[in-house]
Amino acid sequence: MTTSELVGTDERAVVAALRESVRGAVIGHGDPGYDEARRVWNGLIDRRPAVIARCAGTADVVEAVRVARAHRPVVSVRGGGHQVAGTAVCDDGMVIDLSGMRGVHVDPAARTVRAQAGATWADVDRATQLFGLVTPGGEVSRTGIAGFTLGGGMGVLQRRYGLACDNLRSIEIVTADGAVRTASRQEHPDLFWAARGGGRGLGVVTSFEFDLHRLGPVVRKALVFYPYDQARSVACGWRDLTAQLPDSVSPELVLWSVPADPAIPAALHGAPVVIVAGVYAGDPADAGPVLAPLAELGTPLMQAGGELRYAEMQQAVDPAFPDGGRYFFKSHFLRELTDDAIDALLACDARRPTPQSLVVLRTLGGAVDRVGPGESAYPHRGARYNLSIDAGWTDPALDDTAIGWARSSWDALRGHATGGVYVNFAGLDAETGRDTVYGGSAGRLDEIQAAYDPDGLFAAAARRP
């Protein structure tokens, strides 16, 4: 059955079967709330699934998979957050929606947290910070834990504690046969390997268990705004500094326009700037000498860092990425940041189409590279930087301009990159090939997906980067 064939009698049969077996809401065409249920964070995405099964728990997921096996619609799986490319929602098929499954349980003695797949990083941080514990999460608190972790999961603590997927202890997953499995280093280690960086298309992951680390509730952060006319010298200095800083900080450099934040002087709102940031992953009392050089790369316009609560820090940029905005992200990995690469980057940024668009350089290495290249499906160990080209806008009339800028910038920077692409910043459906996203892991991922889903129930999800 193709995507377009789940209509009429077949659609009604699927909806009826789900309503008979799923405790959560089942929403089809014409039902109240359908447009809201199909809406995702990225306003660029406008897909119309045949049915949305809002699962209340793992048992509902099992029933949804059973119905999908019987009727064979195209299936997509939705977690709790952003998922820039919008592949959580499909046209004409079935959405297995986990966004209502947001339970979080912390075991402070074991230093672990188990969170359901609909949880966001705000949900996880709220629970873990009660005990002064943290697992590396996203940089926007409304990001969902599921897609973020399954794709690797970069964040502000990565050089100290690794990627989100590096902190996984186990997952609960419903595979295509409807079985509920726990995957860990001891049980179904092949599934566990795949879930750490290549987990799309394996089944429906219903919960994640993470290791926790001592950090918070108060941390120290450097946040320095430099004038845009210092961009090249600041970028070169930042590059040189990143080679010297310890793993307790994961520095970032952002080319952006100052957001209309009440904490920032109104005279700066909208001005193009260079932002240098870093969070100290340790005792705030020890942070000063480590973070101080980030404010010595030029003459700052202002500094907005200092001590703050970790959970508040993680929420600070949420307003800059509102629900319903239009977004398109592309990325590269770089082994080095040469002067020529910086010049090319600045040339691309000079064409930035909207104030909401930005370019981000994140520093890798440290704990990210202490995971062996074959220990997980995440294939981009060894890169020194990740470059993210993030188009953001609100007016649909700017779709072609904004997307075109991100794509042309990505093309212009290919010669400075490794050839790998971060799956969570890979553009839209099928825009980036699996070999580019998964590198040397692609072949083994195909084998594992074939073993657990021989009939291709989740084939559409597996094909989408």
What does this structure look like?
Strand 5 (104-107) and strand 6 form a beta hairpin. The two termini are 22 Å apart. The chain has helices at 8-21, 34-38, 58-71, 121-128, 145-150, 158-161, 189-195, 231-242, 288-291, 310-315, 339-349, 399-413, 434-438, 442-452, 459-463, and strands spanning 26-28, 51-54, 75-78, 94-97, 104-107, 112-116, 133-134, 168-174, 180-184, 204-211, 213-214, 218-227, 252-257, 272-280, 302-303, 306-309, 326-334, 358-363, 385-393. The strands form 4 sheets. Strands 12, 13, 14, 15, 16, 17, 18 and 19 form an 8-stranded antiparallel β-sheet that branches. It has a 5-stranded antiparallel β-sheet with strand order 5-6-10-8-9. The protein has a 4-stranded mixed β-sheet with strand order 1-2-4-3. Helices cover 27% and strands 22% of the residues. The protein is of the alpha+beta class and 465 residues long. The chain folds into 3 domains: 3-97, Uridine Diphospho-n-acetylenolpyruvylglucosamine Reductase, domain 2, CATH 3.30.43; 104-215 and 439-457, Uridine Diphospho-n-acetylenolpyruvylglucosamine Reductase, domain 3, CATH 3.30.465.10; 218-428, Vanillyl-alcohol Oxidase, Chain A, domain 3 (3-Layer(aba) Sandwich), CATH 3.40.462.20. Helix 1 (8-21) runs antiparallel to helix 3 (58-71) and helix 11 (339-349) packs antiparallel against helix 12 (399-413). Residues 44-215 form the FAD-binding PCMH-type domain. Keywords: FAD, Flavoprotein, Oxidoreductase.
